[in-house]
Design goal:
This protein has helices spanning 11-29, 84-95, 101-106, 115-126, 131-148, 156-180, and strands at residues 52-54, 63-66, 69-73, 80-82. By secondary structure, the protein is mainly alpha-helical. The strands form two sheets. Strands 1-4 form a two-stranded antiparallel sheet. Strands 2-3 form a two-stranded antiparallel ribbon. α1 runs antiparallel to α2 and α2 crosses α5 (131-148).
Length: 185
């Protein structure tokens, strides 16, 4: 993990990020891609029911910040149709962020932050208040992340390592999900 600057760990930045992601998803919901659209890294058809064109690699690494707040998303090479709620789950994993105590020590958080509070702030700022939707989003986002592995030039050992990482995160989520979503309706 990369160390997080103090401003990136703030609740103000977290809420502003969820609002930015929501504005993007709202705008994308009105976009109808041309029939000949090609999704560079994904063999995806046009958006289906409930889907929109999503970023595909959303996270702090693809966010521009000004004065400690997010102002834009960049690096659109993985754009593709997806369920915006699933992308909300991906965003929560990366911006809240979610992970083990070891992750937070390596990221300069010092201690693991109040994850249920941060997740509830993020979800509510996006416009989602219920734990069922957030639980589904977190689980599906992580499970579907395995699909993206096939688009990267990995050796068999690197692929296996990546699969183990995702499996460990899903196992952590299984044990933590009730607590993580406790502050949602």
């Amino acid at each position: 993990p990369t160390p997080w600057p103090a401003w990136a760990r703030s609740e103000e930045c977290l809420v502003a990020t969820a609002q930015l992601v929501r504005r993007f998803h709202d705008a994308a919901a009105t976009f109808v891609p041309p029939e000949e659209a090609v999704w560079r890294r994904h063999e995806a058809p046009a958006p289906g029911a409930g889907e929109a064109v999503c970023h595909g690699d959303i996270g702090p690494h693809n966010t521009v910040y000004r004065s400690g707040l997010p102002v834009a998303l960049i690096d659109w090479d993985t754009i593709r149709p997806n369920d915006p709620i699933i992308e909300l789950g991906t965003a929560a994993w990366k911006y809240v962020p979610l992970g083990t105590d070891a992750y937070f020590r390596a990221s300069d958080f010092g201690a693991t932050p109040a994850l249920p509070r941060r997740l509830a702030l993020f979800a509510r700022a996006y416009g989602v208040h219920d734990r069922v939707t957030v639980r589904r989003a977190l689980h599906q986002a992580k499970q579907r992340s395995v699909d993206t592995i096939r688009y990267f030039p990995l050796t068999p050992a690197q692929g296996a390592s990546e699969l183990r990482r995702v499996a460990a995160e899903l196992e952590w989520l299984d044990g933590a999900i009730a607590g993580l979503t406790a502050e949602l309706d």
